């Protein structure tokens, strides 16, 4: 699914075929972000993180939905399109010289290395106040029009804050505050000054920021060298299989590091949730035993995924829980306990009510590619370890986004929104609705598109429901 490339944008809302039931209370727009094309001209990207950002929109209204998609007009996208080749180096893809640039342009660019960095915001999409932005891990974000999907503004966060990168998953509080957009609220010293840990996401509780200092580090020396030589960022990542993982708590009140714990060697992308309970801090996250998943996300590896027996192990993520006593001595070892023995990635919860609070359920996509139900949608009960799944042959779902019912009393009273791709029909995409309680299908809207529909990474639902 990640090997598909969108060849034609859909700027006019496309109507689809509705089956089942779309609740009338469900009004709003599901936005999704991810790699939209793996090629520019005759050149191809080398990694799933490198494809040009494509924003998808599913507008839900009056018991049905429409679909649109449009590439984010990043500087990288515009330069690549103008040159008809990859002229901006990505996470794992090396560029070629830009024929649109003169020799003088290339000479002066050497002395302005940061201007050469990719601004391809391909990972996620989040609200900031009443505006919508696409994100990646570089300090560039793009403001988008949620109705037309036009790119409205490019924001360089380094002009306001002393940062060189940021998480692709900021946290949105109930009052609308976003951590990562206002000011520096906390800091920590890395274990190795020139090798900070790679962090794709972090946790937040009532009193703490929770940072996971995994043994996947970024060599700052290599980063600087790569910037000047226009080499991919991926070569700066270094995995240390014999080192343990540190969990760092930073006070939200003072911004200071207050405690550090040790746990097993692990690699992670996504925190599920974190909360304080009975004088302990609980952290749930989707873990891998090593960082080989990054190798599995190279396009060549994806093309041979069915014949490579190692790939199944690379992608085998498991949800684990760490319970850290808040009064424990520094560097206390904490066991990572299995929450459920099923593959889990791109986890979501009832975010508005339970982010940073004690919760019971989370929803994810099964990462067990050798399972008889690959790509199933999963619901995990963290209290019991039980899980439910939804699966349909020849269908592959995206990250499930939870939308609560009006006046919902139960944590799982709501609808899961998933984007569904069809294995045998590249030019077909569906919006799937599941009952979050039962994991049974409620309805779906299916769209036949003029070109292949690629798989996306992350999304956000913008509710337009009128509050009583």
TrEMBL record:
Pfam families: RPE65. Its cofactor is Fe(2+). GO terms for biological process: carotene catabolic process; retinal metabolic process. One of its GO terms (molecular function) is carotenoid dioxygenase activity. Binds 1 Fe(2+) ion per subunit. Keywords: Iron, Metal-binding, Oxidoreductase. Fe cation binds at residues 169, 200, 270, 458. The keyword Protein transport does not apply. This is Beta,beta-carotene 9',10'-oxygenase. It comes from Papilio machaon (Old World swallowtail butterfly).
